[in-house]
Specification:
It is built from nine helices and six strands. By secondary structure, the protein is of the alpha+beta class. It is elongated, with a radius of gyration of 20 Å. The mean pLDDT is 87. The structure holds zinc ion (ZN). The site of zinc ion has 7 residues, from loops. The site of zinc ion (ZN) has 7 residues, from loops.
Length: 225
C-alpha cells in the first residue's frame, strides 16, 4: 500500500535539491543523508513512508523550522473553518480557502495523510511546496502555531481572527473586494455570487447552500424595494 502520493514525494525531493543548492541550516551529516535519500529515490523511483517522513523532516530542519517549539497565538475558535474544509473534502480532493491581504495571497488547506498533523489547517502564501511561505498551522481550538517570522504576520493574524469569527463574512468581503470566489478562485460571474462571496457550486461543496440562498434573498429584497 502506498500511503504517500507520488506528487508529495516529488515535491519534497525537488525542495530538498533546491535547498541543498543554497544556504540552509543542514549540517554536513544532514547533507550526506539528504544526498543519500535523493540518490535512493532516483534509483528506486520512490521512497518508503518512513523515508518520506525523514526527507520531510530534513527539509524542515534545513529551512530552520523547529516543529514543536514554535510560538503559539490564539486566534479564536476555528471550528467553523474546520467544518467548511472537512465538509468539502467529501466532494473535493484539495479543498481550500483562498484569501489575500494587501494583494498578498493567504491560502488555507488541511494537511494531507503524509503529515504528522493530518487534518490540521495550514496557512501559506499559496506558493508551490518548498517555495512558499508557510505561515503555520491552526488547530480547531484556534491555536495558531507560527512558521517562520515574516513581516506580514500581524496582518495574517488579523485575517485568521476574522475568519474564525465568521468565515461567511470574510468570504463575502473578499468576494466584494476582488470579484473572486474565495474557495475556487474563479471570477464571480453574477451579482448573486458577488453578494454571497462564492458561487453556487462552491456553496454546495462547502455546505453553504443556506448562506447562499440568504445572500441571494437579501439581494432580491433590495431589487424589489
Ligand atoms: Zn467557487
Amino acid at each position: 500500500m502506498m500511503d504517500f502520493p507520488e506528487r508529495d514525494q516529488a515535491d519534497i525531493h525537488n525542495a530538498l535539491l533546491i535547498l541543498l543548492d543554497g544556504e540552509n541550516k543542514l549540517n554536513a551529516k544532514d547533507r550526506e543523508i539528504v544526498a543519500d535519500l535523493c540518490h535512493k529515490r532516483y534509483k528506486y523511483g520512490y521512497w518508503s513512508p518512513k523515508q518520506t517522513q525523514y526527507a520531510d523532516a530534513l527539509f524542515k530542519r534545513g529551512m530552520g523550522q523547529q516543529p514543536d517549539d514554535r510560538p503559539k497565538v490564539a486566534v479564536g475558535s476555528f471550528a467553523g473553518v474546520y467544518k467548511l474544509l472537512e465538509g468539502a473534502s467529501a466532494h473535493l480532493k484539495y479543498p481550500k480557502i483562498q484569501l489575500a491581504i494587501n494583494n498578498r495571497p493567504v491560502v488555507l488547506y488541511r494537511s494531507g495523510p503524509k503529515s504528522k498533523y493530518e487534518g490540521t489547517i495550514n496557512v501559506t502564501d499559496g506558493g508551490d511546496f518548498g517555495n512558499n511561505k508557510w505561515y503555520g498551522r491552526v488547530d480547531k481550538e484556534g491555536n495558531w502555531t507560527h512558521g517562520r517570522t515574516y513581516p506580514e504576520l500581524n496582518e495574517v493574524e488579523g485575517l485568521l481572527k476574522k475568519l474564525g469569527e465568521s468565515p461567511q463574512a470574510v468570504a463575502k468581503e473578499y468576494g466584494r473586494l476582488t470579484g473572486r470566489c474565495c474557495f475556487c478562485g474563479h471570477k464571480l460571474e453574477d451579482e448573486k455570487s458577488t453578494a454571497a462571496g462564492f458561487g453556487p457550486v462552491c456553496a454546495k461543496h462547502y455546505g453553504l447552500e443556506n448562506e447562499w440562498k440568504n445572500a441571494v434573498a437579501v439581494l432580491d429584497q433590495k431589487e424589489a424595494a
